[in-house]
Design goal:
This is LytTR family transcriptional regulator. One of its GO terms (molecular function) is phosphorelay response regulator activity. InterPro entries: LytR-like, LytTR_DNA-bd_dom. Residues 21-126 form the HTH LytTR-type domain. With 127 residues, the chain is of the alpha+beta class. It has a single domain (2-125), classed as OB fold (Dihydrolipoamide Acetyltransferase, E2P) (Beta Barrel). The chain contains three helices and ten strands, in the order αβββββαβββββα. The protein has helices spanning 2-9, 64-70, 114-125, and strands at residues 21-25, 29-33, 38-44, 47-52, 57-60, 76-80, 83-86, 90-96, 99-104, 109-113. Strand 6 (76-80) and strand 7 form a beta hairpin. The model is unreliable at 1-12 (pLDDT under 50).
């Protein structure tokens, strides 16, 4: 996936040199994942769903703020109180009455809060 990300984005990203995310699940045991393969993370109570580029989805027993502290802030954007997205997978933005939507390269749409819309729009336009 490293070559794929470099080819898609045409430049070296900070994600290429970031330490991997280490997770433990009962089914597979301890695993490491590259940060650049993380599409987005969503909070659900004190758990987080991590959604990966290969389509894998994992529910982990840590709050979203745990991952916010572990991920590079220049590459991940907080869309909402419960959602963090990898800016390298953002395809386009759409303004709505409730705030907005961020469309990913996978076709998924994630909501953006009204309060954060301006800052997110600016961050992604400057990218």
């Amino acid at each position: 996936m490293v070559q794929g990300v470099s080819a898609v984005f045409g430049r070296t990203t900070p994600l290429l040199h970031w330490p991997p995310i280490k997770v433990y699940t009962r089914d597979t045991g301890r695993q490491s994942f590259q940060v650049m393969d993380l599409l987005y993370a969503q909070a659900e109570a004190n758990y987080s769903w991590l959604n990966w580029a290969d389509g894998q989805r994992m529910l982990l027993p840590r709050p979203l703020n745990y991952y916010v502290a572990k991920l590079p802030p220049e590459c991940f954007i907080r869309l909402h109180r419960n959602c963090l997205v990898n800016r390298y997978y953002v395809h386009h933005l759409e303004r709505t009455d409730q705030g907005g939507l961020v469309y990913l390269t996978t076709g998924e749409a994630l909501p953006v809060s009204r309060r954060r819309w301006g800052a997110i729009y600016h961050q992604l336009q400057c990218f």
